[in-house]
Amino acid sequence: MSTLQDWVITAFEPLGALSLRLAFADGTQQDIDFAPVAGGWLAALADPAYFARVRLNDSGNLEWPGGEDFNPEALHDWPWFAEAYAADARRTRRAA
Predict the structure, then answer these.
(1) Which of 39, 32, 19, 38 is nearest to 74 (CA)?
(2) Can you spell out the DSSP letters for the chain?
(3) pLDDT per residue as tens digits for the range 49-60
(4) Where in the chain are the domains?
(5) CATH number of 4-95
(6) pLDDT at 89 (0 to 100)
(7) What is the pLDDT of residue 26?
(8) What Å distances lie between residue 16 and 6, 10, 34, 52, 56, CA to CA?
(9) Residue 1: predicted pLDDT
(10) Contact, 25 vs 12, CB < 8 A?
(11) Mean pLDDT for all residues in the chain
């Protein structure tokens, strides 16, 4: 079972316009394509220039200038959470 300390992001690197490789305190990595989740409250992330402004905050989590961030557990265990974030983005795109 993971703990909050396991979910701390220690480093990240861009893989593409909307993709990052994340390294976690527990030694695991996740390669995440954020394009499918860039909708609704995360719509700004669809702009590659804005997406590139990502930083690690003081808590060891990703954060963008507008305050967009993710639950650190979701990033750590992305395969379990990716579809929920993508489904939310699709719903908000249809509603717009």
Answers:
(1) 32
(2) ---GGGG-EEEEEEEETTEEEEEETTS-EEEEE-GGG-SGGGGGGGSHHHHTT-EE-TTS-EE-TT--B--HHHHHTHHHHHHHHHHHHHHHHHH-
(3) 999 999 999 989
(4) 4-95
(5) 3.30.2020.10
(6) 81
(7) 96
(8) 25, 19, 10, 10, 18
(9) 55
(10) no
(11) 90
86: its two tokens: 């993508």
pLDDT tens digit string along 6-37?
Answer: 899 999 999 999 999 999 999 999 999 999 99
Question: Beta-carbon neighbour count of residue 35 at 10 Å?
Answer: 17
Distances (CA, A) of 47 to 23, 72, 81: 23, 22, 22
CA dihedral 40, 41, 43, 49 (to 10 degrees): -170
